[in-house]
Every structure is written in structure tokens, then in C-alpha cells.
Amino acid sequence: MALHSQTSCGTLLQKLQALWDEVGESDEDRDKVLFQLDQECLDVYKRKVDQAMKSRDLLLQALDYSKMELARLASALGEKSIATSPEKTTRTIKQQLAALAPTLEQLGKQKKERIKEFADIMSRIEQIRGELAGSLEIGQQVAIPQINEDDLTDEKLRDFQSQLQELEKKKRERLKKVFEHVSTVHGLCTVLGMEYFSIITEVHNSLDDSVSKDRKSISSDTLSKLDRTIATLNEDKRLRLNKLQELVTQLNDLWDLMDTPTEERSLFDHVTCNRTATVDEVTAPGALALDMINQVEIEVQRLDELKYSKMKEIAFKKQTTLEDIYAGAHIVLDTAAAHDKIFALIESGNMEPMELIADMDSHILKAKEEALSRKEILDKVERWISACEEESWLEDYSRDDNRYNSGRGAHLNLKRAEKARIQVNKIPVLVETLVAKTRAWEENHGLSFTYDGVPLLAMLDEYVILRQEKEEEKKKMREQKRYTEQLLNIDREGPFGTRVSPYRLASAKKVAGPKPNGSGTNGSPGRRLSISTQQNESKSSRSAGKDSKKDAAAAAAKISASLNEAATAKEEDTSIRHSDTDPIPCSP
Q1: What is the rounded distance in angstroms from the CA atom of residue 451 to the CA atom of residue 441?
Q2: What percent of the chain has pLDDT over 90?
Q3: What is the rounded distance in angstroms from the CA atom of residue 421 to the CA atom of residue 387?
Q4: Among 469, 466, 394, 402, which residue's Cα sits nearest to residue 425?
Q5: 39-45: long-range contacts at Cβ-Cβ below 8 A with a sequence spacing of 24 or more?
Q6: Kind of pairing, strands 450-451 and 454-455?
Q7: Are 228 and 184 in contact (CB under 8 A)?
Q8: For residues 98 and 371, what is the distance between their CA atoms, to the nearest angstrom?
Q9: Residue 213 Cα to chain centre, angstroms
Q10: Using CA atoms, how far apart are residues 226 and 207, in angstroms rounded to an integer?
Q11: Could you give the dihedral angle defined by the CA atoms of residues 16, 20, 21 and 26, in that order, rounded to the nearest 10 degrees?
């Protein structure tokens, strides 16, 4: 193209020279025109050079800007591995610009994505902070946050992500706590019989069950209101439970006072089950509703009014219980005087019914304690009485001449006799133990231990005396028997051998059984215990209708009968002795 341009200029110059020659231009004019042409060409070249320099400068500025932009993006994005200054010796300006363009484009896109990511995270952070602080209404969106485009590094992004995770965790915990509080309010309202919807919406409208989970209010103010609501409901629950337990205690006292049947009490099982429950243990729906408490209060008032009309019956039942305890402990009680005193107290109205019952309960408690303190001794007394009965039976059995016959039930009597002998042999030790324990009891209590009104030590002393007398009589009987046998042996020897007097045999058979009237020549042992028996019978007549006291009197009478039988046996043996010593007529 340059060659073509030069050829064209030379051709034109030749034409110009030819024209000048033809015209006859002077050399001076020709030189002026040529100089002018040179100046005009120079101007054109200068303009072109200036334009080229300006273009170069612009390219250099663009290259510098690109380098700066690349450095700024790399710094903002934290890309340290990107080269921001390509080598000048190997590449032209345009080549350098072309080399930087893809990197700039890539970093630009990355920056936009990073800005969007920062915006999303920061918006979420501000949203959660507003929800926790309560500065945002439910569903309200936060404004787009301002982002520092000079710091879009991964480290900064991770920092915001960490903040978001902490806030999301805090939100979950807050939401969980709100749900727990809402559930607690619901449970308390159920127990107290209160309207849950009005109470929970008074705290915040979003806490209703119809509102979705993501739209619940989790602000500190909402949580504080829930705490106050729960505290109020818990206090109401505590007060109502205390009132209900007081009413239930009164109700149970009135039931026990009037011996209310189980069927009637079971109507209030849903109430009495909370008598000893703690506040946290009461969870049944409506357990502390006002209607429920009013129902129990009305029942207490009704029973309180009814107790005055049944007080006489209740008091006499308590007295019967007291008498039964004393009867079981073999303690004599003046029942007639006690009944008269109770009747006079009720009729006079000088004592409140509850005070009277409480006083009788106190006496019953003391009676139980006294009966418990006497139990060990009474158990041994029963063993003593049983042993005395077996002793009496054994004596009757020993006097039976047919006891060894192989009749029906003979082997049973033999076994009973063996057991009876074992019990009888233990009587002395048992009596000594009873005496020791009775004296210790009397020293400890400062009272005389009586058995159905009779001092036990006196009974034991009398029994010991009678037993000693009985043993002495047995000893005398054995000696007399040996003496009688010696006399019989002398009489049987004659000139023609031994002979037996028919009269003697008849006399011996005649005195073998007990006398018809059952009395003996020596009646002192029977008379000694007859006083105790009479006292038992007179004391038992005071509490007529009490089977336990009749049994106790009968037991004491058995001891007396046993000793009387022993005395009778002694008298019979004495009669045999006298019969054996009578003169025997000679046989014809």
C-alpha cells in the first residue's frame, strides 16, 4: 500500500513538473509550491503521530486500570495466586490487555456472586437478630445491607457464616424454649381448668397453635412474658393445691369421724389422690379446677353440719373401740360410768365434738400403748393358763384306770399326755419368769399389774402356795400308801397262806372315784381362788356383751377349777388312806 502511495505521489509530481514546464513556472514559484507540499505532508505525519501517541497513552491507561482492577479484585476476593503484571518485553500493550481481560472477567463474575452471597448471609443475620430482639414484626423483611466490596475474602465469608450458624442455633434454642414454655402454659391451664387460647394469645398472637412454626415470636420480650405467665399460673396452682389438700384433710377427718363407707369415699378418689402430692406431681386435667375445689368445699361443709347429729354414735363407737382394747389386754374398765360421762358431755355442749373425739383418740392411743406393754406378760399368762388346763386334764387322765385299754382314741390320749407332761414340767419356770417380768413391769409403770381386775402377782403367789401344798399332799399320800401296803401284806399272811378280805376290796373300790358333791375335807385351795373368780365374774358383769372379757373370766375360772380339782384329788386320796386304816373284821 505504501509503495502504491509513493508511486502515485511521484506520478503526480511528474505531472506537476510537466505542467510547470508547459506553463513556464519559475523555479522560485516551483520551490514555494514544493516547500508548501512538504509542510503539508509534515503536518499530516505529525497529526498521525499525535494520534498514535494518544492511542498508545489510552491503551497504557487501560492497561494500568486493568492491572489496578485486577489487583483490587484479587485483594478483595483474597486471590493471591493471580499475576497482576504481565511481562512487557514479550507482549505488546494490546496483547497485555488481551491477556488480562479473561482474568478480569472471571474475577468480576466471582465478585458479583460473592457480593450476592454476602448479601444473603448478612440479610439472614439481620433477620434473625431482629427476631431475637423483637424489632421485626412477623414476616417483615430487612433492608438490603451495605456490603464492603473491598473485603470479600473467604475468611470474611466464613466469619459471617459462623455468625449466622450461631444465630440460627440461638434461634433454634429460643424457639425450643418458647415451645417448652407454651407447652408448660398449656399443661398448667389444663390442670387449672383455665382457657388456654385467651391466655397464650395475650402473651403474643403468634403463639397460637394455628400459626406455623417459622412465624412464631421468639423475642426476648415474648419469652419474658411467658416466664411471668408461667410464674403466675404456678402460684395459682400452688395456692389451689394447698387449699385442696386442706379440704381433703378435713374431708378425710370427717370420713374417719363418721365411719363413711368406702363406696361413698370412692366418689372423691380423683381428689383424695392428691392429698400428699407435690405441685409438680399434679398433672391430671382439671385436677385443680375451681369447680372441683368448690365441689370438695361443699362436701366438707355438708359433712361438717352432719357430724353434730352423728356425734353421739361416733363417740360411743370410739368408746367401744377403747373397751375392746382394754378387754384384749384384760384390763377392767367401768363402761357404765364412761358411757354416762360421754353422754353428759355431748348433751351439755361444753366440749366441741372434734375435741371430744380427739380426746377419745388420745385415750385409745394410750390404751394401745398400754396393751402393747402388757402383751409379753399376757402371752405368758395364756401359756400358764393353757399349761394349768393340761395339768388338770393329765390328773384326770392319770386317775382313769382304763386309760391303757386299746379303745378308740387311746393312742391320741397317750400323745396328748406326753405333751401335757412336757408343758406341766415347764410351769415352775414359766411362773418364775412371769413373776420377774410382772415385778419389772410394776416397777417401771408404778402400777399393779392386774388380770381382769385381780393382781397377777397375787394369783401367781396363791398358785405357788397351792402347788406346794399339793406336792406336800402327794408326798404324804405316797408315804401313807407305802404304810398301807405294809399293813396289807401283814394281814394277808396266815397259817394257810395269804388271804384277801372281800370287805377290803369292796372298800377300796368304793373310794376309788370322786365324791358326789365334788368337795373334800380340806377346801382351803378352792376358797383361795374363789375370791379371784368372784371378782372376775363381778367385773365381767360390768361389761356385759363383751365376749373377750367372758373368755378372760372363764380362763381365770379354769385356773381355779384346776386347783380345786387338785384339792379334790387330795381329799379323795385322804379318804382312801382312812379307809385303808379302818379295822377289818375277821372272816368266818
Answers
A1: 13
A2: 11
A3: 9
A4: 394
A5: none
A6: antiparallel
A7: no
A8: 118
A9: 36
A10: 10
A11: -140
Q: Which of 466, 473, 463 is nearest to 575 (CA)?
A: 473
Could you tell me if 66 and 97 are in contact, meaning their C-beta atoms sit under 8 angstroms apart?
A: yes
Cell numbers at 306, concatenated: 352432719
- Which three three-digit cell numbers place residue 437? 417380768
Q: What pLDDT is stored for residue 235 in this prediction? A: 94
The string of pLDDT tens digits covering residues 383-441 is: 888 888 888 888 888 777 776 666 666 778 788 888 888 888 888 888 888 899 888 99
Among the listed residues 258, 252, 257, 288, the one whose alpha carbon sits nearest the alpha carbon of residue 270: 288
Q: Which of 129, 137, 71 is nearest to 100 (CA)?
A: 71
SS3 call for 498 = strand
Amino acid identity for residue 356 in this structure: L
Q: Is 454 helix (H, G, I), strand (E, B) or coil?
A: strand
* Tally of CA atoms within 13 A in the half-sphere of 556 that contains its CB: 31
Residue 65: alpha-carbon gap to chain centroid: 81
Rounded Cα–Cα distance for residues 413 and 430 (Å): 24
- Average pLDDT value for residue range 488-505: 51
3-state secondary structure 419-451: HHHHHHHCHHHHHHHHHHHHHHHHHHHCCCCEE
First vs last C-alpha separation in the chain = 208
Cell numbers that stand for 340 in this block:
354416762
Q: How far apart are CA 131 and CA 118, in angstroms?
A: 20
Q: Helix or strand or coil: residue 336?
A: helix
**Do the beta carbons of residue 312 and residue 346 sit within 8 Å?**
yes
What residues does 199 pair with on adjacent strands?
none
Coil, helix or strand at residue 145: coil
The residue to which cell 385303808 is assigned = 580
Cell of 314: 361416733
Q: Please compute, for residue 528, the number of CA atoms within 13 A of its CA located in the half-sphere on the CB side.
A: 20
Q: Which residues contact 483 (CB under 8 A, 6 or more apart)?
A: none
**What is the DSSP code (8-state) at residue 144?**
P
Closest CA to 365 of 313, 312, 325, 330: 325
Q: Give Cα separations from 33 to 14, 15, 16, 27 (angstroms).
A: 14, 14, 10, 10
Could you tell me the pTM of the whole model?
Answer: 0.48
- Report residue 347 CA to chain centroid gap: 46
What are the grid coordinates assigned to 387, written together? 399349761
> Could you tell me the three cell numbers for 8?
502515485
Contacts of 339 (CB under 8 A, 6+ apart): 316, 319
- For residue 116, CA distances in Å to 119, 159, 278, 498 come to 5, 16, 57, 150
> Can you tell me whether residue 389 is helix, strand or coil?
helix
- Cell numbers that stand for 115 in this block: 457480593
Question: How do residues 362-375 score in pLDDT, each as one tens digit?
Answer: 888 998 888 898 88
Q: What is the DSSP annotation of 263-282?
A: HHHGGGHHHHTTSS--TTT-
The span from the CA of 316 to the CA of 318, in Å, is: 5
Q: Which of 85, 82, 64 is nearest to 73 (CA)?
A: 82
Q: Are 382 and 423 in contact (CB under 8 A)?
A: no
Which three cell numbers, joined as nine digits, stand for 493? Answer: 399272811
CA distance 248 to 252: 6
Residue 271, amino acid: V
Q: Which of 474, 346, 328 is nearest to 398 (CA)?
A: 474
